[in-house]
């Protein structure tokens, strides 16, 4: 049985109180336990981070980037181990878990350049003999609260940048797949990061609430569902903290009639069913502009029929199980809802064969095969709700304008994509669509680490996106210094407001 404890002050520590279960999603069996922090555990982690802050803040930029480089090398060396842990607890296939590690490592690589990223501005002689310069300084103890679907990558959106900027960090990972965070903590220590700079508290709402009210926590980065993101933003800011809270998504792919439908079908299947649809940038709605609907749906159904659904550690599996039984049941309930709302179930994932077992609905483990629902009407719950599973909806629209309106009337604004060979139409789309991350013939437009990741509307609360230069900005505060080195000519009393001369 695996046991995931906390990581405080450079060592793993067991919590004494409540515990949660860690499942093997492929079998449905309990594979281990995770400690669920009490407020006192959170206080211990914050105290360790607070004690480590002055030393880390004052460490040179060279030292910080050396530690980051070492961490990068260790993570790279242990990526298979990390991916196996992710796959075992989350359920995603090994190659997909390796992909999340690789995308997270790009943020570590970005943060290795921290000496350049923290360069300020300098103006000589803003007044005679007076210079002005700006610097950015770390905040202190900062916290990251992360979701189950990327147990390595999403924390890596946050902590490499926060730590590089000179902050100390407390991570509260998802209680559903907690082990990746502990491996990363061990590798930080091996890389030479001083104890207390990076801490992990496992837990649930009780841990989150304590972080949100703790007076020593200066900033909170959150990624998760929209209701919790809104709550974290409101509670954290009410307690005087800087907060960036990324929420849920419902991402649409707009397919114009001139698009190459084979490429579109490949993209829709990859982006809809990768990681069993448990990605905040998954495509969950295809908007097929007339007359492409019938042909496109046939091509998607053909590809879906060739997918192998099976355990994450089987190299032949294209798609693994969902994260928990409760989540699978919730996702599966939308299939009946779709029928009740007048849509057509063209592929029913409950009937999908699971490798080594029977069909999804009768196999132990949290299985649901790829599901395609056609003729979904805009505004119905299947279209509106974030389902967060392997369910791809097809909405038929008559024109570009109608498709754009459907996207812009959606509550969320995380990602979207347009598929077309018409540059003018694509350019119009990127200008008119109310979404934070836009793909042109790219179905999952996740920005590279040196850009910033974040959505619009109910997909993000706060005004700062994660990683990239916005991440550096979020984890630092600005200071402007005006300096003059005195000589006797500067004497004399003058109560007027300082002006330049
Ligand atoms: P979640 O909101 O249930 O949990 C996220 C975090 O909040 C976890 O650490 C969890 O322990 C904590 N939490 C849960 N309930 C809480 C409560 N009542 N009070 C305080 N804290 C609470 O999300 P999840 O199911 O783990 O992850 C899936 C969601 O995350 C989806 O909605 C997905 O779209 C979203 N997500 C968004 C992005 C993005 O970049 N916008 C990226 C990844 C995932």
Features:
alpha/beta, 501 residues, Aldehyde Dehydrogenase, Chain A, domain 2, seven-stranded mixed sheet, binds nicotinamide-adenine-dinucleotide, 23 strands, Aldehyde Dehydrogenase, Chain A, domain 1
Number of domains: 2
The major beta sheet can be summarized as: 7 strands, mixed
Distance between the termini: 73 Å
* DSSP, total strands: 23
Largest sheet: spatial strand order: 15-16-17-14-13-19-20
Protein name: methylmalonate-semialdehyde dehydrogenase (CoA acylating)
Keywords: NAD, Oxidoreductase
Domain Aldehyde dehydrogenase: 18-480
Pfam families: Aldedh
Task: Give the structure's gist in a few sentences.
The protein has 501 residues and is an alpha/beta fold. 38% of the residues lie in helices and 23% in strands.
What can you tell me about this protein's structure?
- This protein has 501 residues and is of the alpha/beta class.
- Helices cover 38% and strands 23% of the residues.
- The chain has 16 helices and 23 strands.
- It has helices at 39-57, 61-77, 79-90, 94-112, 114-117, 153-164, 179-191, 205-213, 226-238, 261-273, 293-304, 325-340, 381-384, 400-408, 423-432, 468-474, and strands at 2-4, 6-8, 11-13, 19-24, 29-35, 122-127, 130-138, 141-145, 168-172, 198-200, 217-223, 242-246, 251-255, 283-289, 344-347, 371-374, 391-397, 412-413, 415-419, 437-440, 456-457, 460-461, 476-484.
- The strands form 6 sheets. A 7-stranded mixed β-sheet has the order 15-16-17-14-13-19-20, sandwiched between helices.
- A hairpin with a 2-residue loop joins β2 (6-8) and β3.
- α4 (94-112) runs parallel beside α6 (153-164).
- The longest helix has 19 residues, at 39-57.
- The chain is globular.
- The mean pLDDT is 97.
- Nicotinamide-adenine-dinucleotide binds next to α8.
């Amino acid at each position: 049985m695996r046991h995931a404890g906390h990581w405080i002050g450079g060592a793993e520590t067991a919590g004494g109180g409540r515990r949660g279960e860690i499942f093997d999603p492929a079998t449905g069996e309990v594979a281990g336990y995770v400690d669920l922090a009490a407020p006192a555990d959170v206080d211990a982690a914050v105290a360790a981070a607070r004690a480590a802050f002055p030393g880390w803040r004052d460490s040179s930029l060279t030292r910080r980037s050396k530690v980051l480089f070492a961490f990068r090398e260790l993570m790279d060396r242990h990526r298979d181990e990390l991916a196996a842990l992710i796959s075992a607890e989350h359920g995603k296939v090994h190659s997909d878990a390796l992909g999340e590690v690789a995308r997270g490592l790009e943020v570590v690589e970005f943060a290795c350049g921290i000496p350049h990223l923290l360069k300020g501005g300098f103006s000589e002689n803003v007044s005679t003999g007076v210079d002005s310069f700006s610097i950015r300084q770390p905040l202190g103890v900062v916290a990251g609260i992360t979701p189950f679907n990327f147990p390595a990558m999403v924390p890596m959106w946050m902590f490499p940048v926060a730590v590089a900027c000179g902050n100390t960090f407390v991570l509260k990972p998802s209680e559903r797949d907690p082990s990746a965070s502990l491996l990363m903590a061990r590798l930080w220590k091996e890389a030479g990061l001083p104890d207390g700079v990076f801490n992990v508290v496992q837990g649930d709402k009780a841990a989150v609430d304590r972080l949100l009210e703790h007076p020593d926590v200066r900033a909170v980065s959150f990624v998760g569902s929209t209701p919790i993101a809104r709550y974290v933003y409101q509670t954290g800011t009410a307690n005087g903290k800087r907060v960036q809270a990324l929420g849920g998504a419902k991402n649409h792919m707009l397919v114009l009639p001139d698009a190459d439908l084979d490429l579109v079908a490949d993209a829709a299947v990859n982006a809809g069913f990768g990681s069993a649809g448990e990605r905040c940038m998954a495509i969950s709605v295809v908007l097929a502009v007339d007359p492409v609907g019938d042909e496109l749906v046939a091509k998607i159904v053909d590809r879906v029929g060739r997918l192998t659904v099976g355990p994450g550690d089987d190299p032949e599996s294209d798609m693994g199980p969902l994260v928990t039984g409760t989540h699978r049941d919730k996702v599966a309930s939308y299939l009946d809802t779709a029928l009740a709302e007048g849509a057509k179930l063209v592929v029913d994932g409950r009937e999908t064969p699971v490798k080594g077992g029977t069909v999804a609905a009768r196999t132990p483990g949290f299985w649901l095969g790829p599901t395609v629902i056609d003729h979904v009407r805009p505004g119905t719950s299947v279209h509106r709700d974030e389902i967060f599973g392997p369910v791809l909806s097809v909405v038929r629209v008559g024109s570009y304008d109608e498709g754009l309106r459907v996207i812009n009337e959606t509550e969320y604004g995380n990602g979207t994509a347009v598929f077309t060979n018409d540059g003018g139409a694509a350019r119009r789309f990127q200008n008119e669509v109310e979404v934070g991350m836009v793909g042109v013939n790219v179905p999952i437009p996740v920005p590279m680490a040196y850009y910033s990741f974040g959505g619009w509307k109910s997909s993000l609360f706060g005004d700062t996106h994660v990683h990239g230069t916005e991440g550096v900005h979020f984890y630092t505060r600005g200071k402007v210094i005006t300096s003059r080195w005195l000589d006797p000519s500067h004497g004399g009393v003058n109560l007027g407001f300082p002006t330049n001369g």
